[in-house]
Specification:
Elements lengths: L1 E7 L4 E11 L2 E12 L3 H8 L4 H20 L4 E6 L1 H5 L3 H12 L3 E3 L2 H12 L8 E7 L4 E7 L2 E8 L3 H5 L7 H12 L6 E6 L1 H9 L7 E3 H12 L3 H6 L5 H4 L2 H15 L3 E3 L5 H17 L1
Parallel strand pairs: 1-4, 4-5, 6-9, 9-11
Antiparallel strand pairs: 1-2, 2-3, 6-7, 7-8, 10-11
């Protein structure tokens, strides 16, 4: 069985095709294809409130490619989710309807809370039952914060701040204060908090940190790596550090969100599992297939 997940974010759109492997009751998803393309819808929406004609054309071309790849891989089922930029665009629903009509592909516009829930379903598997965690997921347009006591989520909130929003200076002026206040109110008193970071930017930061202990990085090393990157111009990040252009201009902004939340929560270290929204979508697709068969 093969399934696929497509995540259309504010910065990039990703598709992952996975084989479903069964070992007794254990289910794993083996990646067989992964494609990422920088649509940068947030540039349109956060500045002009709508997705441009040119961006809509690129979405359709990209989804046509994704559709062909899924046909070649003989995918059994898939799901497309779009997050902050497309759900905020005044013409987002119209574009969804045109794509359904022209390509036969249904895009689900999901709210921040649903986005957090889908990620939660896979993140919870890597958490220790005896510890307190702050999960930080920074996208192009929004940041999802989730607090866990063991494997139980005790609080969750979506904030309109993300890497592309910061790049374009379109964040709400009081959003930093609201995040700080929310964490003060919901982080358990005297808890030894461990941060969990998801998203492409923190994964890149994590990759660049030389010394990691058992899959963890300290906030000091994260900030040190961010400051090192910040010394380079965007062109130098692309050519010397070999970053993708759509990563090079937002990575410092995204890291500022991660480290601010860690400081406010009192988290000294972070784990960065290779998990995200696409993995949550894959799990949902698989469960839907199982329910149909039963």
């Amino acid at each position: 069985m093969k399934i696929a997940a497509i995540d259309i974010g504010s910065n990039a759109a990703r598709m992952q095709i996975s084989s479903v492997l069964k070992d007794g009751k254990k289910i794993t998803f083996k990646k067989v294809e992964y494609v990422r393309f920088a649509l940068r819808l947030g540039m349109d929406v956060f500045n002009n409130g709508r997705i441009s004609y040119e961006s809509e054309a690129r979405i359709k071309k990209l989804l046509t490619v994704y559709k062909l790849l899924m046909e070649l891989h003989e995918v059994d089922a898939y799901m497309i989710c779009a997050t902050s930029a497309m759900r905020e665009a005044e013409n987002g629903i119209n574009i969804v309807e045109r794509i359904k009509l022209e390509l036969g592909m249904q895009i689900h516009l999901i709210e921040g809370e649903k986005e957090a829930e889908l990620i939660n379903n896979v993140i919870v598997e890597v958490l220790d039952t005896k510890k307190t965690y702050l999960h930080i997921d920074v996208g192009g347009g929004s940041t999802e914060l989730n607090i866990y006591k063991g494997k139980n989520k005790i609080a969750s909130k979506s904030f309109k701040i993300g890497s592309v929003r910061l790049l374009e200076h379109k964040e709400s002026p009081d959003v930093w204060k609201k995040m700080h206040q929310w964490l003060d109110e919901h982080i358990p008193v005297d808890a030894d908090v461990i941060a969990v970071g998801t998203g492409g930017n923190i994964s890149k930061i994590f990759e660049m940190i030389e010394f990691k202990t058992d899959g963890f990085a300290t906030i000091r090393d994260i900030e040190k790596t961010k400051n090192y990157i910040a010394k380079f111009s965007v062109d130098e990040r692309i050519n010397k550090l070999q970053m993708n252009p759509d990563r090079a201009d937002v990575i410092v902004h995204a890291t500022d969100i991660y480290t601010a939340c860690m400081k406010w929560a009192g988290a000294r270290e972070m784990m960065v599992p290779d998990l995200g929204l696409k993995d949550g979508i894959l799990l949902l697709v698989y469960k839907s297939l199982v329910n149909e068969e039963s």
